[in-house]
Write a structure and sequence with these properties.
Shape: globular
Number of strands: 13
Number of domains: 1
GO biological process, one term: proteolysis
InterPro entries: Peptidase_S1 (IPR050430), Peptidase_S1_PA (IPR009003), Peptidase_S1_PA_chymotrypsin (IPR043504), Peptidase_S1A (IPR001314), Trypsin_dom (IPR001254), TRYPSIN_HIS (IPR018114), TRYPSIN_SER (IPR033116)
Pfam family, one: Trypsin
Order of helices and strands: HHEEEEHEEEEEHHEEEEH
GO molecular function: serine-type endopeptidase activity
CATH architecture: Beta Barrel
Number of helices: 6
Protein name: Serine protease-like protein 2
Length: 303
Amino acid sequence: MNHFYFSTFFLFLLCDLYSAQNDPLCGTNGPPAEKGRIVGGEEVVPHSFPWVVSLGFINKFGEYKSICTGSLITPQWVLSAGHCVRGIEHAHKPTALLAAHSIKLKVAEPHKEAVRLVKFVRHPKYGNHKSKDFKTMVTNDVALYKLERPMKLSGNPHLGTVCLPPQNSTYDAYVDQVAIATGWGMTEDGNFLSQSSVLRKVSLPMVSTDFCAKEYRVKKKGNEKELNTLLCAYSPGNGTCHGDSGGPLMIRAGINNLSGGDRWTLIGTTSGGKKCAGKGSPPTFAHVSLYYDWIRKTIKENM
């Protein structure tokens, strides 16, 4: 995958999210869309999702420790979960690991690179809800993480950006589609030693707001605004876990003004759930298209 950034447009692309979103090659890597039966979690083909980023820190022994997962949306900005900020921001040497399949630094990969994180911007309304129903669900769970420097995408087949969805896409537009979630999270609920060292994926069907509200015992009436900030995807026994937080929930979709067929599009960022792997309730994801204006404004204000 090649990315061409003419020097006269380079700063413009960094400043203007719309241009970055419509990078002619965003979301063009990756496997075909999932069809048919839902599959369980499995290791991805190395570097098949070149926008997936690990967020963590370098400890005093020089070892990289992954805390969350994120998605590269411009050459210098990663979109992830708001609840990840605290653990990463105050860690020793906050770091993003890019173009990586394995999060072990000793495992050699052609383009793998550890880059310092220098700014963390959580959504101003993170967790801002008045209803007592939302005991296990976090609203507005998104944050932007700035890399120390813009990444060079040209000539790097293992690094790229994911496409953002159309602004204010409705929840119903995704229902019954099969999405993919990726991350370096735990593979066994409650076993922190089970964190995957390689990137894994799980295929999940999107479910309705009504189904999600029912599973979490949230009254829909009076909570419509909060529920609209979330997406739910569900396959019993399959799902996300600790360490996958902030990672992408993706579908293949057509993007306005871009040719070449469907692109991998970031519709959600992993937020949480009652238990791992969809046991007892569907995992929840922040509804990315609702934050388009905030993302664009934040990037422009923090150049």
